[in-house]
Design goal:
seven-stranded antiparallel beta sheet, PSTPO5379-like, homodimer, alpha+beta, about 260 residues, PSTPO5379-like fold
């Protein structure tokens, strides 16, 4: 299979890969994509600055630029992801695997850190990740933790992902992820889900439920779905994102993001 | 003397304090100020995103906003610093201690982390800071380390501050400051100044020389002067900053910034 980020991107660009990127090019950073018109880019960038845990920006393009400069050497953001989602006025319109025809010189791309990166660090430390063991999508919840709005992006609830861990592993996972602030950082909550407004841990808002074993506690991390939820409310005329799980894969390694 | 950030700000607002803020309101975060027209704010915010070590943004205002929301509860950025500098087309025009009359609804303020915060952590760990002992301004140098440009802000050299430390203290200081990424983070270099383009350590570009004792090495941190140097080249029609050493003092504590 693909050994590097570049191999994944070339396969996407050539139309040879249109599936999720989970598990591809082990060790290479994967990132969420958001594209907005320049008229909306300021509000969004300020929103990410105010909410760095759910919105850790790894790269912002210059206005009109579709080539990356930092996460990868000259990747083409219009072709190098396996699948894109097109939203108009906050509503999903279609999925495409190439957005070259849609590109405008007024567009700005944002690449945001993703939990795949910290999951690699947790796995390497011998911490079992239940959703991987059970082969489902990580459970994701809307909480009552408030994110600060910016311009047309409103104050909005933080979205979190959850991984059940023993208290020992929870402590260890917190230590590891706090050194990774550019991929969501330390957990935002551990333990009682009700304290952050989650009424039933077995009914996630996105993804699927996972088994919480005797002696384990739920551990919650800020999730990159948060800014997309905010955008659904702000309703920019056009927003393009990666399709869920179909991420941008860079040339940089996850371990470069450890401070 | 002033015990809290609010006391400092009220004294500035009332015209009762127009001097540097070093040593005031111990434990409260101090920040660099940059104000630009909204037409220049995007380029500057992207510049800070690309260069987080010299430009750690603690708060960005909404367009036209002059009250803070995060670093302090409703501080007024136009009156609450002791002294401001006004630059036109990259050239220093004047110093003022109140900019209310200059304010425009098109202006955007940025507050950036400052080395005063990490120096507190180093002092608390028993690390002597030579420029404080010798009662001079910290020595600052222009290096050959490149910062990535953004829009009209060019690729430019990183500016660094230097503190001489024993190798033991240098290691300890690196450990402490890497946990403070929002106030410049870990050192960018230790040891031979020539490796980062500094030809004579005794002739700083700003600030004053300090004694480097037998067995000590120079330790270099990214410095908040960097974005001002970039702006001198980009020449925005108007830029307002704090006067050197005359910082914004917030309600938040330095220790809140430790990850």
């Amino acid at each position: 299979m693909f050994k590097t980020g570049k191999e994944v991107r070339m396969a996407c660009r050539g139309g040879r890969w249109q599936k999720p990127t989970s598990g591809l090019a082990f060790g290479y950073v994967q990132a969420n994509l958001v594209i907005l018109d320049k008229d909306w880019a300021w509000d969004f960038l300020v929103f990410t600055q105010r909410n760095p845990k759910p919105c850790p920006v790894l790269e912002v393009g210059d206005i009109g630029a579709y080539k990356t400069r930092f996460l990868a050497n000259e990747a083409d953001i219009r072709t190098d992801l396996p699948k894109y989602r097109i939203y108009e006025d906050g509503v999903l319109k279609e999925e495409l695997d190439d957005i070259s025809n849609l590109w405008s010189d007024n567009y700005v791309f944002f690449l945001l850190g993703c939990s795949f990166s910290f999951e690699q660090s947790l796995s390497e430390a011998g911490i079992e990740l239940r959703h991987i063991t059970e082969n489902v999508n990580v459970p994701v919840y809307v909480t009552n933790i408030k994110c600060a709005g910016a311009g047309r992006f409103p104050d909005c609830p933080m979205v979190v992902s959850m991984r059940p861990l023993s208290t020992d592993n929870a402590r260890k996972a917190a230590e590891i992820t706090k050194k990774l602030p550019s991929v969501h950082g330390a957990p935002v909550h551990m333990g009682n889900p009700a304290e952050i407004g989650i009424s039933d841990i077995d009914i996630p808002d996105f993804g699927e439920r996972v088994t919480i074993k005797e002696g384990e506690i739920p551990v919650f991390w800020a999730c990159g779905v948060t800014p997309q939820k905010a955008a659904m409310v702000a309703k920019p005329p056009l927003m393009i994102t990666h399709a869920p799980g179909h991420m941008f894969v860079g040339d940089r390694k996850n371990n470069e993001y450890q401070i």
